[in-house]
Amino acid sequence: MGNVRRAGEVPMLNLSRRDFLSVLGSGLLMAPLSPVLGQNATRLRRPIPRDGHLLPVIGLGTWQAFDIAADAAAHADALATLKLLLQQPQSVIDTSPMYGRAEAVLGRLLGEADAAAAAFVATKVWTRGKAEGRAQIENSFRLLGRTTIDLVQVHNLLDYAAHLETLQALKREGRVRYIGATHYTAAAHAQLESLLAGGVLDFIQINYSLAEREAAARLLPAAAAAGVAVLINRPFAEGEIFRRSRGKPLPDWAGEIGCTSWAQFALKFILGQPAVTCAIPGTRNPKYLADNLAAGQGPLPDAAQCARMAAYYDAL
């Protein structure tokens, strides 16, 4: 990726995620990573279209990563990850009742790491029936330790119509700030697109990545036109991007967009879509998070560069 680097930076030439994390673990990257770890002005943010509220472009997902039992080491890792993320206030943390113990674990960790309630907390409703949905949402308030939840989403569109009235009422009461709907497959994109026209949704959460690019054709433009924020799940296609790129170098021109690892390459490709508000890769490993957060700094690819990135990935 050439020799493009600022004075004092450790050169990171075509490093895999494993190599990047090995160097990071040695402490050699603490100086160049210091903007990620604490200097908020260097972190890119984008507005929620409804009101202009700014969110950092890299957040955190809790699926699998925070579904942990009484494991002290895992809890310590998750807490360290959360504290690192929240060096940038209003960073998005996404969870769900569907994610096993993740919602409860997140609530306990927020009690330790986020006394000022600076995180932007997103959860979901995932059940059938209006009464059941209301009960589940109330349980989320309890588990998360929040009197107000920033975003509640209808998970995988399950019984969407039944939950919409509840969410609108909670929003009017000020207990929920934003309403959303989610899915993780391209097969649901058409349904999500049709819901955008209703004017009720503030957010959608969808899959989009180098390996799953379908949303760029219609859904992302439709969200932008409707003034709806977009969270991106499956940014690494459940590891497919790392499996495919393992042992392969980044292109020489990756330095033009500030990429030093495949994780950053994948995330910057996503952020090259102006309609994307925030990507939420899941991890409880602080080293992985530091790698991910670095994608939220520096230049982002334009449309031509995104096309070049996709072509390079396809040729691996």
TrEMBL record:
Coiled coil regions, renumbered to chain: none
Annotated NADP-dependent oxidoreductase domain residues: 58-302
InterPro entries: AKR2_Oxidoreductase, NAD(P)_OxRdtase_dom_sf, NADP_OxRdtase_dom
CDD domains given in the database record: AKR_PA4992-like
SUPFAM superfamilies: NAD(P)-linked oxidoreductase
UniProt xrefs under PANTHER family: D-THREO-ALDOSE 1-DEHYDROGENASE, NADP-DEPENDENT OXIDOREDUCTASE DOMAIN-CONTAINING PROTEIN
Name listed for the protein in its UniProt record: Aldo/keto reductase
Organism: Tahibacter harae
